[in-house]
Design goal:
Layout: H1 3-20, E1 23-28, E2 37-38, E3 52-53, E4 61-69, E5 76-84, E6 98-105, E7 111-114, E8 125-131, E9 134-140, E10 144-148, E11 154-161, E12 166-174, E13 179-180, E14 183-184, E15 192-194, E16 197-214, E17 217-232, H2 236-239, E18 240-250, E19 253-262, E20 267-275, E21 278-283, E22 287-292, E23 309-315, E24 321-334, E25 338-349, E26 355-365
Antiparallel strand pairs: 1-8, 2-3, 4-5, 4-17, 5-6, 6-7, 8-9, 9-10, 10-11, 11-12, 12-16, 13-14, 13-16, 15-16, 16-17, 18-19, 18-26, 19-20, 20-21, 22-23, 23-24, 24-25, 25-26
The protein binds 2-acetamido-2-deoxy-beta-D-glucopyranose (3 copies).
One 2-acetamido-2-deoxy-beta-D-glucopyranose is lined by residues 72-73, 327, 329, 344.
């Protein structure tokens, strides 16, 4: 082999390496014994990749979440891919480490949650391929899969499960850059939004198109969409007393909020705002979220009824304080300990224009 060939082989290896940089993890529907270690500091890529190693033990969890809400807040869709037992996260089927679910809300307010509790949809195995910052996942045997680009610019969720009566796609085209709990998508960032809860927000806001047939009914709409993932190395309910999370689009702003009350009695927050697609703030401070109207007790307990809405103060730094009021339009899921809504937002920066938009948001409450 002459030097020219050595150089050529080197060049080929380099290009092969780029192609091989995608990594595929196969997870079987079994529970690891011993420690499952969480990644709580970001690396140089893999924002949306698996975060528990090994995936998963009986008390850890790692999930991928997708949603979209119609422009008039009347319809909604949520699809979640779980690696978790019901000890890790209580809302997944028992005796399974791999499952999926879908929440669909139709224009007339009908809410469909599938699979039914007595017919849990478990996967035999899952593969998750990480490429750049993006991930793609197949939960085998469920007909549920998602596919993301390495630069997080677009994602597609595909469901094809004739037995369950669901076919269709959710397409997300990102309009706001990814971020972590405390900052930008950079190496070395803190990934814990609250103790033992990891969070990576691949798509804070997207132009979404939902096109499904569910139990024979079409569910088709356009509106803001979203994708993130959470993970943790301790049971969710051992760490969280209550939490408010949500996202929405308000005029030129894409916003995401987290306001968590930990079991330690401390409040943990994360605030994100992008304006016309540029990040203005991504921080684990500078935001306060509180329930409003009826049942606006804070902190909420299990017996608190559903509030009518929320008020958010989101600090935009030199641009001022973004003050947002959310009025609930419809419940997309209501399981007492957990509620998810779509609603109308209005607000703006003091002295500036008032904008309106739609939001999708949730509450957990686990305290007596
Ligand atoms: C799972 O792993 C974590 C460490 O990340 C450990 O604290 C926990 O006890 C493990 N759970 C079980 C059931 O072994
Ligand atoms: C929705 O899906 C159906 C069935 O695949 C397809 O015929 C139709 O063109 C799609 N509509 C849109 C708006 O993409
Ligand atoms: C939210 O906005 C939509 C569309 O403008 C409207 O139909 C609906 O009544 C509003 N809901 C509330 C609770 O204000």
């Amino acid at each position: 082999m002459n030097f020219r060939n050595v150089a050529l082989v080197g060049a080929l290896c380099a290009s092969v390496q780029v192609v091989l940089s995608a990594q595929t993890l196969t997870v079987s529907n079994t529970i690891a014994s011993g420690a499952s270690i969480a990644q709580y500091i970001s690396g140089s890529s893999g924002l949306d990749g698996p975060k528990m190693s090994p995936e998963i033990n009986a008390t850890s969890f790692d999930w991928w979440y997708f949603d979209a809400v119609a422009e008039d807040a009347s319809m909604g869709l949520v699809v979640v891919f779980y690696l978790s037992t019901d000890l890790g996260f209580p809302f997944v089927p028992p005796l399974s480490a791999l499952s999926v679910d879908i929440f669909a809300t139709f224009e007339d307010g009908t809410l469909v949650f599938l699979p039914e509790n007595d017919l849990p949809l478990q996967a035999g195995a899952a593969t998750i391929t990480t490429d750049g910052d993006g991930a793609s996942g197949v939960w085998k045997g469920t007909g549920f899969e998602f596919s993301g680009t390495p630069d997080l610019s677009s994602y597609k969720v595909t469901i094809d499960n004739p037995l369950l009566g669901i076919t269709g796609t959710l397409e997300l085209k990102s309009v706001a850059p990814a971020h972590y709990a405390c900052g930008l998508n950079l190496p070395g960032q803190n990934l814990e939004v609250s103790p033992h809860i990891g969070w990576a927000n691949a798509i804070p806001d997207a132009d979404a198109v939902a096109n499904f047939t569910i139990l024979g009914r079409p569910l088709q709409f356009k509106g803001p969409g979203y994708h993130d993932k959470n993970w943790g190395d301790a049971p969710f309910t051992s760490q969280v007393a209550s939490w408010y999370w949500g996202h929405g689009r308000l005029g030129p702003y894409s916003i995401v909020w987290f306001d968590v009350l930990g079991k330690d009695g401390q409040e943990y927050v994360s605030s994100y705002a992008a304006k016309d697609g540029q990040i203005i703030t991504a921080s684990c401070s500078g935001i306060k979220v509180r329930p409003t109207g009826q049942n606006s007790q804070y902190p909420p307990v299990i017996t608190s009824g559903n509030p009518q809405g929320f008020h958010i103060d989101l600090d935009l730094g030199s641009e001022g304080m973004l003050e947002v009021d959310i009025e609930t339009n419809i419940a997309l899921a209501d399981a007492i300990l957990y509620t998810r809504w779509s609603g109308n937002m209005s607000g703006g920066v003091q002295g500036g224009p008032t904008y309106t938009g739609v939001a999708l948001y949730e509450e957990f409450k686990f305290e007596l």
